[in-house]
Amino acid sequence: MEAMIEVNGLRKRFGQAVALDGMSFTVAPGQVTGFVGPNGAGKSTTMRVILGLDSVESGTALVGGKPYRSLRRPLNHVGALLDAGALQPSRSARNHLLWLAHSQGLGTRRVDEVIRLVGLEGAARRKAGGFSLGMRQRLGIAAALLGDPPVLMLDEPFNGLDPEGIVWMRGFMGSLAREGRAVLVSSHLMSELQDTAGHLVVVGRGKVVADTSVSELLAAASRGRVLLRTAARERAMTLLAQEGATVAATGPDMLTIAGLPAERIIEILSQGGVPFSEVSAHRATLEEAYMELTRDAVEFRAGTAERAAR
Ligand SMILES: Nc1ncnc2c1ncn2[C@@H]1O[C@H](COP(=O)(O)OP(=O)(O)OP(=O)(O)O)[C@@H](O)[C@H]1O
C-alpha cells in the first residue's frame, strides 16, 4: 500500500526544548490512523511541519510523495483541521468557506456540498463567531474537505465535543477512510479513538513509541486474561493467587485474572466452593492497551517528577 504521508527523522527544538527527536512514521490510505501521545509529545508540531508551517533542523515530511510547499493546489492534496478557533467571527460559515474556496479556484457548488457533508446546512448562514466548539470543528472539517483531498489531518478533532458530537466525528472519520482517504487524527485520549482507528502511531517526547495496528495491540493486551464475576471476590482472589495467578480487582464483583486458563479457574473455584456467575475471555479496551504500552514511560516520568520534587 502506498503511503500518503511519510515523515522521516524530523528533529526540531524550540530554544532548549526538544519538540521533535527523530519523529518517523507513515500513514496509509483507506484507514484512520490515530496519532496519540501525552500533551507536549510533538503531535501538533509534526502536523505543522507536514503542512510546511514549521521548519525543522533535519528530516523530511512528504504528502503523496512531495513536500507540501511544492504542491501547486494544496487543498486538492491534503486537508487539515489544526485550530478550529481560527476563523473570522463576523463572517457566516458559508462565507468563510466561499472565501477559502475562491482563494484556491474552487466553486460555490463544492462549498454547499461540504456544508451538507458535515451537517451544517441549518447554520451555514449564521455568524461563525457564535458557533459552539462542536460546530466549529464541523466547519473546520468542511474547510479541510473543500478540495476533496486524499489525505486529511485532524488535530484533536474531539476537543470540546459532547458525546453525540464524538459519535458523529468517529462515524464521519470512518466514512472518509472507507472512501480510500488517509486520515491522520491526533488525540491525547485513547478512548476517543476506540472503534475508529485501524492503526496507531503512539508518540512521546518527540518520537514514536509504538507503531501498530489496533487489532494487534488489542489482541496482545487481551491475551490469556480471564474476567470473573463473583460475589466472593476476596476468597476467589486468595485461592487463585495461591495457584499462581495474577489477580486484579476491576470492579465491586469483578476480577481480571492472568496466568491461568478459564478451565483451571473454574476447577479451582468449584473445588473451593467459591460461587461465581460469569467467566469470560477478557477483551482489553484501547485505553487499557495504551496504558500497558506506555506504562514504562509513565513510571519513568513519575520517578523523574519525584526526583525533581526532592
Ligand atoms: N511555538 C512554540 N514555542 C515554543 N515551544 C513550543 C512551541 N510549539 C510547541 N512547543 C513545544 O514543543 C513540544 C511539542 O509540542 P506539541 O504542541 O507539538 O505537542 P502535542 O503533542 O501536540 O501536545 P498537545 O496535545 O498539548 O497539543 C512541547 O514541549 C511544546 O511546549
Automatic annotation (TrEMBL):
The keyword Metal-binding does not apply. Residues 5-230 form the ABC transporter domain. Signal peptide: none annotated. InterPro entries: AAA+_ATPase (IPR003593), ABC_transporter-like_ATP-bd (IPR003439), ABC_transporter-like_CS (IPR017871), P-loop_NTPase (IPR027417). The keyword Hydrolase does not apply. It comes from the Bacteria. SMART domains: AAA. Belongs to the ABC transporter superfamily. This is ABC transporter ATP-binding protein. Pfam families: ABC_tran. Keywords: ATP-binding, Nucleotide-binding, Transport.
